[in-house]
Amino acid sequence: MTFESWWLIFLPLLFGLGWLAARIDFRHMLSESRNLPDSYFKGLNFLLNEQPDRAIDAFVEVAKLDPETTELHFALGNLFRRRGEMERAIRVHQSLLARADLPSRDREHALNEIAQDYLKAGMLDRAEMAYKELKNTRYQQQAARALVRIYESEHDWPKAIEAVRKLSKLTNESVPQLVHYHCEIAQTHLLRQPPEFEAARKALDEAGNSVAQENESTPASRARVLMLEAALARAGGDAKLERHYLLTLLDEAPSFAGLIASDLQNNFAASEECAQLLERLSGHYQEHPSLDLFDVVFRLTWREQGAHAAWAFAQAALTAHPSLLGLERALAAQARAQQDDQASLQSNDGLVSLDLLKRLVGRHTQRLDRYSCRVCGFQARAFYWQCPGCHGWETYSPRRVEEQQ
Q1: Beta strands 350-352 and 371-372: pairing type?
Q2: Which helix (H) or strand (E) holds 109?
């Protein structure tokens, strides 16, 4: 292809067209900026200077002058929600939804925003209705997750099961909490008076089916199902079946053994087989030490082999895993035993109360005798499958704070 000199005529023409387009665009920008109220720029300046209160006042003034500013209404609603002024945030988003000329994309946006307002304000029924209207929109995944949180907070486990299955279809993600939903239903039926065994059995079967799916199975979920199976057997008076599930848990979820150690002790004690259990738990403790397991092994050793053997075990265990909580529990066990024998511990200065020693140590162990959420750090004396702080599932370790340090 050869270059023709007459093509040079197009160069100044192209340059002139570019200059003209730039001038038109620049004039358009100037025209738009002149049409914007000064309050708009003041509001932006306040936001940049991290002064949200003054920014809101400025934007409210702009909204009054030009009620058609959709994006400004969204910004105002978000600011109100962040400040906790839920009533004002809801009014802003309601005013948008009331506009007949609002484009469908902006209407979906406004509906999603007002659903968040309702949720944060604790108006769960309205939030649920708003999120349901977002089905088949670009916000459907976000809405599905929110519905799961709503049903969890209401403890409406059947609806939570339905919602989490819909979410799984949208995201192709596994949902390990599905097992816990069925377990919550089973536990509810077991705690009723009288216990509703058939309903609990059905819920546990569903939980077991979920555990059988590898993508939804975790050590925590397996442990919980086995614990509830044991509880159901115990409530039904079947000690043999209860023992089967408890021992199965030792093999399948060994780190959760501390949560069932007392139940195991009660089961074997009823049939006078504590020596057999002591042998099993002593070996388990060597591989998976925990404070609750230490407590049971110490008491069983005291019962089966005497005080000297129990304190020999305690000394070895506390040397390998130093623990004030462990010492406190050993002292408590000895105090109970000595109360039965009408005995006491002698020191060089005279009589020393083991109960007093236990209470003195206990003052320093109260803050350590807690379970802690690994996500938000929320601590509690009881073990939770769902954190009361961040509402996450399986975020609690079965080991107490002192054991994790």
Answers
A1: unpaired
A2: helix 104-121
